[in-house]
Write a structure and sequence with these properties.
flat; about 0% strand; mainly alpha
């Protein structure tokens, strides 16, 4: 990522997302195929269920 001249924070954010992806499937990020990537992307855009107390009033 440093070869692409990405900022340090961008590199850290990418690494964090790769870790979350691997944690979700319980394996190395290299192993899941395209279907697992698609499933993970759908998981990311699903609305999160929150209690009414956690939602902002404004």
């Amino acid at each position: 990522m440093s070869i692409r001249n990405l900022a340090v924070n961008t590199q850290l954010a990418c690494a964090q997302q790769i870790k979350a992806f691997a944690r979700r499937f319980g394996c190395s990020p290299e192993l899941p195929g395209t279907e697992q990537v698609r499933t993970y992307q759908l998981h990311l855009i699903e609305p999160r269920r929150q209690s009414h107390a956690a939602r902002p009033l404004a």
